[in-house]
Design goal:
single chain, 81 residues, alpha+beta, 3-stranded antiparallel β-sheet, two-stranded antiparallel sheet, 5 strands, 16% helix
Length: 81
């Protein structure tokens, strides 16, 4: 996990990402729907790109789906890193 320097004040919020989960459960076509900051948006996209899902099924056949995911951030005080 990478440390981000946010200064002294508490910071928190959520980025909303629109993703496509393919037939193998991998995330594709990730785009930011609700932004926090460019740095946190990049961290959210990097994290979600590593996520794996159980594929959606239509009958017994895996199919791609589109969905939104929320990535929450909370920082308190100075980073120690």
């Amino acid at each position: 996990m990478r440390a981000l320097r946010m200064g002294n004040s508490p910071t928190q919020g959520s980025a909303i990402l629109h993703i496509v989960v393919d037939e193998q459960g991998y995330t594709n076509h990730i785009e930011v729907v609700r932004s926090l900051t460019p740095a946190l948006d990049n961290e959210a996209v990097a994290a979600v790109s590593r996520w794996r899902f159980k594929p959606a099924l239509c009958g017994n056949t895996p199919v791609p789906i589109e969905t939104n995911v929320e990535v929450a951030f909370r920082f308190f005080g100075r980073s120690m890193f």
